[in-house]
TrEMBL record:
Name recorded for this polypeptide: Elongation factor 1-beta
Organism name: Geoglobus ahangari
Keywords assigned by UniProt, alphabetized: Elongation factor, Protein biosynthesis
CDD domains: EF1B
Entries under PANTHER family matching the protein: ELONGATION FACTOR 1-BETA (PTHR39647:SF1)
Length: 88
């Protein structure tokens, strides 16, 4: 079975959200078998920054959706968008 690389853009609810704390919450929320490989920060506008999340997971049906749903369910998250997804 292969692995899937997924890059997500996580938009916080407002500019006051601590992105360092959000990184920890994302790591904790990730389903079993999902490895959070890296984080980045992308300036958006007016002081708002997006959290970029790189994750590697087995090529199993629904595991990417579970990751997105878990992150979307976090208190400080406004939205989650899949920017890239590829088989590695």
């Amino acid at each position: 079975m292969g692995k899937v690389y997924m890059r997500l853009r996580v938009m916080p609810k407002d500019v006051e959200v601590d992105l360092e704390a959000l990184k920890e919450k994302v790591k904790e929320a990730a389903p079993e078998k999902v490895e959070i490989a890296d984080f980045g920060i992308q300036p958006i506008a007016f002081g708002l920054k997006a959290l970029l999340v790189a994750a590697v997971m087995p090529d199993e049906e629904g595991i990417g959706d579970r990751l997105v749903e878990a992150i979307q369910g976090l208190e400080d998250v406004e939205s989650v968008e899949i920017e890239a997804q590829e088989l590695v």
